[in-house]
Amino acid sequence: MSDTAWEPLKRWLIEEQAIDESVVTAEALKRLDLSGRSLEELPESIGLLSGLVALNLAGNNLKTLPDSLSNLSMLNNLDIRRNRFEAVPSVLSSLTLRSLNASGNKISDITVLKECRALRVLDLSNNDLTTVEGMLAEENDLRTLNLSGNFIKEIDASFASFAQVERLNLSENVLMTIPKSIEAMHELVEINLSDNRLTTIDEAFFFLGLEEADLSSNQLKDLYLHDLDDLEIMILDSNPIQKIEVDESFAPYLKEFSCDSCELQTFVWVPSLELASLCFSSNAITTVPEEIGKYTKLRQLDLDGNGISELPNAVANMTRLQTLYIGGNPLNEEAKKVIKVLHPDICDINMKTGITIERAQEEDLPEMAELIGVLFAIEVDFEIDYEKQLAGIKKLHVYEGADMLVAKHEGKVVGMVTMQRLISSAAGDFIGQIEDLVVHEEYRKMGVGSRLINKMRFIAIEEYGYKRIQLAADMDNTNALQFYTRRGFRRTNLNVYHLEKN
After folding, report:
1. Each residue of 40-86: pLDDT tens digit?
2. pLDDT for 479
3. How far is 163 from 187, CA to CA, in rounded Å?
4. What is the C-alpha to C-alpha distance for residues 24 and 43, in angstroms, rounded to an integer?
5. Which domains does the chain have, with CATH numbers?
6. What are the CA-CA distances from residue 275 to residues 278, 320, 369, 388 (Å)?
7. pLDDT single digits (tens) 207-255
């Protein structure tokens, strides 16, 4: 392809506001963002950008990619999510991609992936896959695989080719069992099997080196938990579980255990004394054992919506507890005395039930933009402009380094919080910047803000391992300052300065 094609390509990229006039040569471009432009095709001259390392094409109307992409020998990160692809583009077989995000398309043909042996990160979530058998070459370098939101019924024969995978997401499929063949995944540390139809789990599962396992929203009824020596997080929410038997060998370093909305009638004792978060909300538990006091590192305890009338005195001595959800229980006067020992903001028995904390979806963005207007009405440094707020929220939603949570009640967004990944020279690593924490006025003082900030804090520290999380608050907003202080945030001597573009 002639270099004379560079000038028209440059003009096109400038028109698309992807580059500015300062870019002199095609080879100078290392990263290119063409996301959210409603593109139906790319110019064939895109192959001139031989220096590209990362290319973002998310949120367009693309069905194919030009053959000239094969010239991008340096390209290792490609984002084609939320387009109209029905097959993984064949041109990718000639590239040495390390990361491919193809989520949110209509992909059912993935045969080309067998040639993409350099991939370490692959996201095929929310496509039309019914099988992944033969997807990868026998020798591959894949480490992170997301297959959530497809129509996969069984995966037994594929586990052998996933042997190097460390993080596997199979949520929102139609799997019915965890087979013995999962034992081949000897590098696996994180698995998400939520929202399937699981009824059985093979014993091999319990001898994996897992650190995190999400089995929520399945059809599990009885469980015998044992081993899983490295496990730190187990989520069993929304299963029809009536009985859980726990062996003393189970997860000695477990930090989070959740059985929200199951059918448990008794409190399940897990042996780990490292627990920081324990959730048994929306069950039929009537008694909390005195031994709960042994969980000296517990920071969040959720017993909301059970049949508990009494609380052991040991609860009042749990000095590290930052949040106790106990609403929706027939507490007697003695139990109320126990929780009065704790700070009322930590122990809110008036919290409204039926509120869920979820990751924000695209359909939530307009309501979130309106909520930011509520926040800016309080913070005088910012002005309310719905279109600007909506544009910002949309960009955050597609930004790889951002997380967005919403609180919902009866389908309505009633609260939100966002976080962006930053690099701190002081911390020498990634940190999280929390912003836009706001709750509708009619839902305040119900624990919604606490649940949002606690969930985001867990994501930052436990999931991502951020060295620090930080936030800014209006110095005149006394309520906000007290809220953050009570939840472990420390005020610094730094002031925040803005320089606006004229």
Report:
1. 999 999 999 999 999 999 999 999 999 999 999 999 999 999 999 99
2. 65
3. 7
4. 19
5. 1-128 (3.80.10.10), 220-349 (3.80.10.10), 355-486 (3.40.630.30)
6. 7, 11, 36, 42
7. 999 999 999 999 999 999 999 999 999 999 999 999 999 999 999 999 9
In contact, 313 and 335? CB cutoff 8 Å? no
Q: Which burial class, exposed, middle or buried, applies to 380 when counting CB atoms under 10 A from its CB (0-12, 13-18, 19+)?
A: exposed
**Residue found under tokens 């000897």:** 186
Helix (H, G, I), strand (E, B) or coil at 88: coil
On the CB side of 298, how many CA atoms lie within 13 Å of its CA? 24
Could you tell me which of 271, 313, 312 has the C-alpha nearest to residue 295? 271
**Short-list 401, 399, 409, CA closest to 364:** 409
The candidate with the shortest Cα–Cα distance to 280, out of 271, 269, 290, is 269
Residue type at 233 in one-letter notation: I
How far is residue 59's CA from residue 82's CA, in Å, rounded to a whole number?
A: 5
Q: Which two tokens stand for residue 469?
A: 């999380």
pLDDT class of 495 with cuts at 50, 70, 90: low
Decide if 401 contacts 411 (C-beta within 8 A). Answer: no
Burial degree of 459 (CB within 10 A; 0-12, 13-18, 19+): middle
Secondary structure element (H or E) that encloses residue 56, with its range? strand 54-56
Half-sphere exposure of 472 (CA within 13 A, CB side): 12
Angstrom distance (rounded) from CA 64 to CA 83: 10
Long-range residue pairs from 148-152, CB within 8 A, at least 24 positions apart, any chain? 148/172, 148/173, 148/192, 149/103, 149/125, 149/173, 150/124, 150/125, 150/126
Give the residues across from 300 on adjacent strands. 277, 323
Nearest 5°: the CA angle 418, 192, 240 is 105
Distance of CA 404 to the CA centre of its chain: 9
d(CA 274, CA 83): 44
- CB contact at 8 A, 106 and 127: yes
Q: What is the DSSP letter of 347?
A: B
Q: Render 429-463 in DSSP notation, one character per residue.
A: EEEEEEEEEEE-GGGTTSSHHHHHHHHHHHIIIII
Q: Which pLDDT belongs to residue 497?
A: 55
Report which residue type is found at 339: I
Write the DSSP symbol of residue 244.
E
- Lowest-confidence pick of 26-30, 203-207, 342-346, 486-490: 342-346
- Based on its alpha-carbon atoms, the radius of gyration of the chain, rounded to whole angstroms, reads 25
Closest by CA position to 393, among listed 365, 374, 432, 360:
365
3-state secondary structure of 348: coil
Which 3 state secondary structure label does DSSP give 274? Answer: coil
